Structure formats: structure tokens, C-alpha cells
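[audit] Reproducing an earlier prediction to check determinism. Same input, same settings, fresh worker. If the C-alpha cells differ from the archived copy the diff job will pick it up downstream; this log only records the rerun itself.
[audit] input (141 residues):
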Amino acid sequence: MIPLSEHLCFKTYAVSRYITGLYKPYLDKISLTYPQYLVMTVLWEHGGMNIGKIGEYLHLDNGTLTPLLKRMEKNGLIIRTRSSEDERVVLINLTEQGVKLKEKAKDIPKAVQSCMHLSDEVKTQLMASLDEILSIQTVSK
């Protein structure tokens, strides 16, 4: 049996929870959960898109995204509309409130990164390793 301390899945899970926890006080100030922040980040970066495309960026399925997006719409951050070309496709766009929130959120990544005390070199190496794992996951789908 492999000790828990040697399980890659556990270490990545623990680090993910730690980093998500670092985001919490900043996101609480702008009334976003971490998953909502991820959706907003994708929309701020790429503009409006369908749910499937958001799912590709975030590695989430429609069943996970739909309730999240409904709550975000209820909170006035996004608008969900059916595509006129294909009713099965739901398009997601930012509201004016959602666009304005970007300014309030712009310094959050830097603030969180400073809490982790990682050198640029270590961050770059870690990001490259994680990208490699994600690319393997994407290819195997």
C-alpha cells in the first residue's frame, strides 16, 4: 500500500483546497464563489460563448455548469440565451454588472500568488507540469 503522502492525487487535491481557500476572502468581497470566479475569468478573457465552450476551458461538464450559471444569472452577472441557429445551444454573455466586476477582481490573482510565496521559477515549473497533466487528460477523452 502506498502511503497517503506519496499519492499525487492527494497532494494535488490538498494544494487545490489550499489555493481555493486563499481566494475565499478576496472573492467574498465581490460576492463570488471560486467556481463562479473561474466562469467570470473565462468570460472576461474570451467574451460570450456557449456553455460547452466554457466547459472545455474549465474542464467541467454541462451538468455541473448549468446550475452554477443559473445562480450567476439570478445574481445579475450573466445572461443565458438560446442560440437562434440551434435551440439546444445556450449562449452565455456578461451583463453590465458582470463586466464592471472585472475591475474589482483584477488584482485578486496577484494577491493570492503573493500569499503562496512561490518564486517565478517554481511557479513556471509547476504550471508547466500541471499543463502537461491536463494535456494528457484532454487527449485521452
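[audit] rerun output stored. Observation attached for the diff report: The radius of gyration is 17 Å.
[audit] end
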